[in-house]
């Protein structure tokens, strides 16, 4: 579990930033960053701006800009026959700029590129390239990677790329607009639910705090912490174009714990634990599902970190671990319904039978009512 926390904590959405900066050692072609700009149906206003500052000690370095149209980034990133020269061809780029060699630390190439779009929001991409004859076929070895060959085939550059929506000056890409408000409101609502439940607990004198409600209270508390952390992250994102790394790490961890916990809660209710049965049967199955679910989330994080191209806009669940998680959820839901029906059939109390029936028909709503009561 600690390994899961560590991996998920490093699961950072760097591709969703609006500020990209650092030092790049590249060969032929290097992706720097992407951003989703809005659109103007009348094509009368600039919708986005890309500001770039680059310093390189090498000759022949170029800055290339693309959008996500089929003939541009979609083509050069998927066609294996498209070499470096092809990637910089006019028919596949929106713009290409020569980056002059810097003779000293004060010489920096600066660019302000404006964007117009009238069809729909689009991702735009920025990359550096240095095309040399035979560069795609060169295979570096310890013997061949001499300083001369390194300088010939590779390039280095310090870069700072800043992408913003032109009209609103927003640092937020289109698909993440409004998330600060969403998570703030969700955080307030979930926080109120936690307070209501804790207040109900304080009023209890003779009755005990039901174990199922205890678990649900803990999960809603995690939901509150998740929403609060994400709200803080996206608020910082609006200000600096990067966000708040620590709250984002915590939110990712809380999300995984919450999802695993909700799955456990559903299975406990289906088994009737502490509702019409004291003993918990099928512990091996429950443990196996929880471990499998955790391992799949670990695999999803590893896949996202190690195998996804930073330039990709692929949804994280469009992967083998993601599909496995979705498949497991379907299997568990079928198991949940089957055992819920069996548990209800053993119950004689009318109120409890009605409860199980409501859980089967509207599981999320009933859990919310259970929490609120």
UniProtKB/TrEMBL annotation:
One Pfam family here: GPR180-TMEM145_TM
Signal peptide range in chain numbering: 1-17
Domain GPR180/TMEM145 transmembrane, first and last residues per copy: 201-358
Gene Ontology terms describing biological process: G protein-coupled receptor signaling pathway; response to pheromone
Alphabetically ordered keywords of this record: Membrane, Signal, Transmembrane, Transmembrane helix
Residue stretches spanning the membrane: 182-200, 212-236, 256-273, 285-307, 319-337
Keyword Electron transport included in the entry's annotation: no
Membrane among keywords: yes
Classification via InterPro entries: GPR180/TMEM145, GPR180/TMEM145_TM
Annotated protein name in UniProt: GPR180/TMEM145 transmembrane domain-containing protein
Taxonomic source organism: Aphanomyces astaci (Crayfish plague agent)
